[in-house]
Amino acid sequence: MTGLFLSIDFDFFTRENPLWDWGHRETGNPMWDHIMWHSRLSQFASVGVDPMQETNPDVHSPIRPGTFWDVMARSGLDVSGARLHIADSHMYGAFSHGLDGRSVVHIDAHHDLGYHDLKTTRKNLREQNADCADWLLHVLHRNKGARTEQYLSPWASPEGHWMDLPVAKRVRQTGLHLSDRDRIEATGLPGLTLTGKVSTVFICKSGTWVPPWWDHLFVQFIRDAETRTGSKRYNMDEQVDPMKVRMSFDEALSQYTQHRKTWAEVRARQQVDLNPVY
After folding, report:
1. What is the DSSP letter of 4?
2. pTM of the model
3. Which of 86, 112, 225, 246 lies 20 to 30 Å (CA to CA) from residue 121?
């Protein structure tokens, strides 16, 4: 298979402020996902932060989901005729890519080159145990001539960039046969050098990171991808359907409003307790 591998994580579009980092962990359990996001809505309400405004792709993302494919075309990426793979977890990017040596254009809020210590990283590579945090490292390890260019969200923390020294050290020491460290490049799309025909588009939702009230935007994003590629989507994950809308925007807004009311009542009671009448 010739051409490029274009990998897009939808969390690229939905801002996460380090001040309210959620400490993520993918479980693949819909019940946990449901509990987790209801809890996060309450947490937002407790500090008076509007989660819809804080994570709105049309407000914070440098590229809006609705204009994304036009930006790709202007950047020199031709997705017409490409296969379209989708999943909830980015882990499936390793399976979608395969072993055909293609270079990767990676658009994400995280570098996905691994966040483990060196011993764990080497063990995972040896045992081919990929997850959402290091799938790209596995792809580069298996495809010796492959390159990758990354375009990361502007709110990615310094620790989230591959340029961070501990990450660079881990990558160098895992035995990857890259001619130079700078073969892994981070560029803005206007400076993209990996251009031309894309043979596979892989898109993941990353539902642990992407708030469910933006699921409708993800669904439209996939439909737009089907139109641009001319291909029917194929879900790589038999356990989780990323096209399922977990919570509508109106439902999330209603719950957030109720949480705000509940927290206001709690504070009112606390104020009464702090000022007893004798």
Report:
1. E
2. 0.86
3. 86
